[in-house]
Amino acid sequence: MKKLQAPRGTLDVLPPDARRRLEIVSIADEVLGRAGYEPMETPVFEDTEVFARGVGESTDIVQKEMFTFEDKAGRSLTLRPEQTAGISRAYIEHGMHKLAQPVKVWSAGPFFRHEAPQAGRFRQFTQIDAEAIGSDDPSLDAELILLLAEIYERAGTGATRLRLSSLGTPETRAGYLKELTRFLRAREDELSDEVRSRLGRNPLRAFDADHAGTQAVMKEAPLLIDRISAEDAEHFSDVRALLDSAGIVYVIDPTLVRGLDYYTRTVFEFESERLGAQAALGGGGRYDGLVEELGGPPTPGVGWAAGIERMLLAAEAGAAASAARVFVAIARPDAARDAFVLARRLREAGLRVETEQAGRSMKGQLKQAERIGAFATVILGDGIDVKDMQTGDQREAASIDDVLEMVQEAAPA
Ligand code: HAM
């Protein structure tokens, strides 16, 4: 009999992982709830047109990644690849523009994209999504970014990198895309085949290219952020001022390309160094034309989505790093007291530290360090040496602070 398995790119979530997911959702509920965001749900499948028109015909999501099927009456339906288009559809359908604006909502649930599965990338994944619809106030852009940063912090994802940019309006974007296409066409023979073949459809992709020739060309390419209108530039500087006053660190990245067409003005993405190739923990931006595109009144909106699987992967990587150990070895008989004091210092810095407490020989101590899985061994002999257990490198430290620095350098990410 055929062995039955979960479909490719999907996950069974077993205990205790299922509980961790609930915890993340309840962190989101608390953090977003305090800022006035209410839970909301939309169907897991929608009329295909919601995504074709909402996310955009030219995007990879719509072109290649949607799970689309026909129902028994021949209607084309699609498993939702993202949340914003569905929420905007519901906003229009239920006349939510008549409520006090902005309407602030959040949701958590499964999404579906037919992508090639790899670490951190699934065909069914879970997003927490937050949206504020009905106002273009820059404080909403900043508020949403801060709330997401707070959720990451509380979920223990570790340090994140925040990239920020502004895409202006669809008109400035269209003008810019023409300018960029002209620029790329003029230097076509320096570009990779892939970028050249997509030039007509998606010239922005050229900024993401790995190809060295293309990268060299892109260093001289015009940037959208230099072309946005004075009004959009002012909106962006208001968003930045609010983020600055909240003390959040970000980098302006004019090449930030998001995979969805509806964005206008602010776009952002959070990345984690603890993740591999799929480093995006979450992202979003403003979509001031989406509700109108789906048949509603002109209505601005802004929001983000964060992948729960990636948040958990980053948090687990951090837990593994903090579980990693340091061994303090005693290479001269009267160093036991120094070892005791040093271990305490290192523990104060948040490290898990064990010292020699069984009178082993130096060889036996190194074996013990390996046995406990130490990533670094501090050896107290005539001087203080730090041995990186991964590479085998051993160097002398000049001071206790130096020991701390060297140990932290050897620590797993
Ligand atoms: P997105 O950048 O396509 O944005 O997805 C947001 C997050 O969902 C990603 O950063 C990642 O953490 C997670 N994610 C996406 N695809 C996968 C996958 N195949 N496997 C695992 N995780 C994945 C959106 O979806 C927009 N709707 C965000 C938004 C809301 N913009 C405005 N409002």
Written account of the structure:
The protein is α+β, with helices and mostly antiparallel strands and about 425 residues long. Helix content is about 40%, strand content about 20%. It contains 14 helices and 16 strands. An 8-stranded mixed beta sheet has the order 1-5-6-11-10-9-7-8. The longest helix has 18 residues. The model has no long low-confidence stretch (mean pLDDT about 95). Histidyl-adenosine monophosphate (HAM) binds next to β6, β10, β11 and α11. The site of histidyl-adenosine monophosphate has 27 residues, from β6, β10, β11 and α11.
Give the topology:
Layout: H1 17-34, E1 38-39, E2 45-47, H2 48-54, H3 60-65, E3 68-70, E4 76-79, H4 84-93, E5 103-112, E6 124-133, H5 138-155, E7 160-166, H6 170-186, H7 193-198, H8 212-218, H9 230-245, E8 251-252, E9 264-272, E10 280-286, H10 290-293, E11 301-307, H11 308-323, E12 325-330, H12 336-348, E13 352-355, H13 362-371, E14 374-380, E15 384-388, E16 394-397, H14 400-410
Parallel strand pairs: 1-5, 7-8, 12-13, 12-14
Antiparallel strand pairs: 2-4, 3-4, 5-6, 6-11, 7-9, 9-10, 10-11, 14-15, 15-16
Helix pairs in contact: 1-5, 5-9
The structure holds histidyl-adenosine monophosphate.
Histidyl-adenosine monophosphate binds at residues 82-84, 113, 115, 121-122, 125, 127, 129, 131, 259-260, 280-285, 287, 303-307, 309-310.
Short description:
It contains 14 helices and 16 strands. It is α+β, with helices and mostly antiparallel strands.
